[in-house]
Design goal:
Radius of gyration: 29 Å
Structural class: alpha/beta
Number of domains: 3
CATH architecture of the largest domain: Alpha-Beta Barrel
Oligomer: single chain
Helix content: 25-40%
Length: 600
């Protein structure tokens, strides 16, 4: 019996081993056939092993490339695009290690580029009180006091968000702020970033008295009492940011921490690059903060940096300064290549330079920083060094001076590689409208500002009020229009690209009852506004060969949207959400399904 059992076990083992051997042989044969099949398939692709790291397919891709405007798929290798076309055509770029993403028909655009923002400066606000523009003066005061009481160990109180003229035509006073913050310096910047409210302690520690001269008389100045004493309302940059530095209200640690928080959010609104339009006399603090963020892999966008000129004393050193920053900080993501000329102020503060008097203030035309031959020669010198020029110009006189300077520079330096742009372009004379196209000057603006404008601005009068934001006419003249936020100033809507796009198309606010700002014929098309955030924006930054459209050889900066903007109502565009953001081929943001619970 025992012998039989042993034999039975031996027989079973033999059968199992024979079956396993057959299975093994069959498996090996199948594996060989599969390998041969794959090799045959790959060799038929004639791809020489040039497989993509990543493929996006089954999408509705709007490339912003006129030669190949629509596609289904994109292949990416080493952060750059190696294929744009059909789902069938992309197959040859898919290898064993390729990450393939099914877009399921989602609408795709090139990554958005904000052409005028101050995101590093926004880092300063990490320990600041942020006021709501729609609130009353009394509510602002309550918020400032509550913030001061909640932060007793801070050196001072720093904030942003007031509308200065809501305090009256002479603006806020230091005594009012003394009641809220009596023993520490306090500085509250207005919503446009061109004036600020100071208390007595801030003046005392900064050494500002009635004998302190205005930094640039008639342009950057202290509002004064009848006895010559500064009232507490400082107008324009040179009365604000040098004092903030002197008061030590801003530290490198604050900028780095706040910058990290800001840059973490940018991919969520679809940004993959931006132009930093000025660091408010704090380049020595802010460029190192940018470099540190990049080193720590926390810089989520490409940054075109600038050197900001806010005083005539900076003119002789400006070109050397931007070259110095470029040499020291230029990298894969950071590119200092622009000189920003802060050439006038705002209409709200009546510091924008006009050809004719402000309607309700006879004899006052605002102020301009650089004009005539000084501006012309400066812009020409910048052009000789192939550095980009970006001029802040809100008033019609400043726009005229800016265009005159570019016209002069074009004649003096006809082969310059510089790009010229005028920022904001709010109030424009008829004769200057076609000059943007004639001189190849980019018109940069923030259409969301339209939503806060009065139909008839009392500072301008009814006729001049019709000359605001004439961006369609400028485009009709052959110029490129680009869009930006001016963050952290300029209102809440300007930060979000789809709000800007919709406002440019409707010229009104986002409520049904909002009035349309004149003229109706200045409404922009969706196609133009997409270009304003992509290829035209890249042109302004002198980067159109690298970003701004989805083309072979360019960086894979891509956004996936929740909706196709061409298939929804215009007044729904601002509700579009970013599903995914890709910068240099890597995902920097993915929208989670539960975000809608938080209203986003």
């Amino acid at each position: 019996m025992e012998t039989h059992v042993v034999f039975l076990v031996y027989l079973c083992k033999s059968i199992i081993l024979k079956k396993m051997k057959k299975i093994l042989i069959f498996s090996l044969l199948m594996a060989m056939m599969f390998t041969i099949s794959c090799s045959s398939k790959q060799s038929s692709n004639n791809n020489n092993g040039n497989y993509a790291d990543r493929v996006l397919k089954n999408g509705t891709i709007y490339t912003v490339n006129d030669k190949n405007p629509n596609a289904q798929a994109i292949a990416i290798k080493d952060g750059k695009i190696i294929y744009v076309g059909s789902d069938e055509g992309v197959q040859k770029f898919i290898g064993d290690n390729t990450d393939v993403e099914n877009l399921r028909g989602k609408f795709v655009l090139p990554g958005f580029i904000d052409t005028h923002a101050h995101f590093v400066t926004g880092g300063m606000l990490s320990k600041a009180v942020t006021l709501k523009l729609d609130d009353s003066v009394e509510q602002w005061k309550k918020d400032i006091k509550a913030f001061a009481d909640a932060n007793p160990n801070e050196k001072g109180v720093f904030g942003i968000g007031i509308y200065a003229l809501r305090f009256g035509k002479n603006g806020p006073t230091k005594e009012e702020l003394d009641e809220l913050v009596p023993n520490r310096p306090a500085v509250i910047i207005d919503e446009g970033g061109h004036s600020a409210w100071f208390n007595s302690k801030a003046y005392e520690l900064a050494g500002i008295t009635k004998d302190t001269p205005d930094p640039i008389p008639g342009v950057h100045m202290y509002q004064r009492k009848p006895n010559g004493e500064p009232s507490g309302w400082n107008k324009e940059a040179m009365t604000i940011f040098p004092l903030i530095k002197k008061l030590n209200l801003v530290s490198p640690e604050m900028i780095a921490k706040g910058g990290e928080e800001v840059f973490e959010l940018l991919p969520a609104i679809g940004l993959t690059a931006y132009h930093d339009a000025g660091m408010m006399q704090m380049e020595e603090l802010m460029y190192p903060a940018l470099a540190s963020l990049e080193k720590e892999d926390k810089l989520t966008v490409k940054v075109v940096g600038s050197y900001m000129v806010q005083s005539p004393t900076q003119v002789p050193i400006a070109v050397d300064k931007i070259k110095e920053y470029n040499k020291k900080y230029a990298s894969k993501l950071i590119r200092p290549n622009t000189i920003k000329i802060h050439n006038d102020g705002t209409l709200e503060a009546k510091t924008a330079a006009l050809h004719k008097d402000y309607s309700n203030e006879k004899g006052h035309k605002g102020g301009i920083l650089l004009e005539g031959d000084v501006l012309k020669n400066f812009v020409s010198d910048i052009a000789r060094n192939d550095v980009n020029v970006h001029i802040h110009a809100i008033g019609d006189r400043t726009i005229t001076e800016s265009l005159d300077a570019v016209e002069f520079a074009r004649k003096e330096v006809p082969n310059t590689k510089s790009r010229f742009s005028v920022a904001h372009v709010v109030l424009i004379q008829d004769k200057d409208v076609p000059r943007f196209g004639q001189l190849d000057v980019v018109a940069q603006t923030t259409p969301a500002w339209i939503t806060t404008e009065e139909i008839d601005n009392p500072d301008l009068g009814a006729e001049r009020s019709k000359k605001r934001y004439r961006i369609k006419s400028i485009e009709n003249g052959g110029a490129k229009i680009t869009l930006g936020s001016d963050f952290p100033v300029g209102g809440e809507f300007g930060l979000y690209p789809f709000y800007n796009i919709e406002a440019a198309m409707t010229r009104k606010g986002f409520d049904k009852d909002s009035q349309v700002l004149p003229y109706e014929n200045e409404k922009m098309s969706l196609e133009s506004m997409i270009k304003g955030y992509t290829i035209n924006a890249a042109y302004q930054l002198n980067m159109e060969n690298e970003i701004g459209s989805l083309e072979i050889g360019k960086w894979a900066d891509i956004i996936v949207l929740s909706d196709n903007p061409f298939e929804i109502e215009t007044n729904e565009i601002h509700d579009i959400k970013i599903k995914e953001t890709i910068m240099n081929g890597k995902t920097t943001y993915t929208r989670k399904w539960y975000y809608w619970l938080f209203g986003y």
